[in-house]
Please model this.
Amino acid sequence: MKAIQIIGAILVLSTLLLPVRLHSQTVELDPAETSFREDFMILDTELDSMKTGSVRKREEIFKYCLNISDRAKEARYLVIKNRLQMIEGDVDRKLGEMEARIKELKTWTERREQFLNRANETLVGIFRTMRADAAALQMTELGPATAASIISKLEPKLSSAILAEMEPNYAAKITMVLTSAMATNGKS
Model:
């Protein structure tokens, strides 16, 4: 389609700029067309003195800029669009990596929770079978938070016996941890 338009433009220009030949006779165009043709004709001497691509007037520069402004905008938008597509691809790739990492971390967290639950159940089972005085001595070495979590899973009768065998200050710390945990669970 563009080729047809270009050929049509060449034909129109050739009829305006060149004299028409009919049956080997040269027929000149009317004076109005001749003056139009002369305004746009460039003599060979003018071409020889010009540098290729040089512009003679500011108006020509302005016209050139106006003519290419739409194409320049389109090219700029195309470059921006390509950059955005590249960035979008990078973001999608990194999101995929992050989702895979989150999935892996969730799997590890679940495994850890399962291990801790099994360890807690085993630990609670061990403390269930111990005598109260021996369990109290061992829990003193574990720390108040761990001791409180174990005591909370034991039967009340055994828990009270273990707390009775502990030093009063340490038993008070464990009781404070237990009550704060119960208060927190009650709020949520």
Remarks:
- The beta strands are 20-22, 25-27.
- The radius of gyration is 47 Å.
- Residues 11-29, 33-37, 39-44 have pLDDT under 50 and may be disordered.
- The longest strand covers residues 20-22.
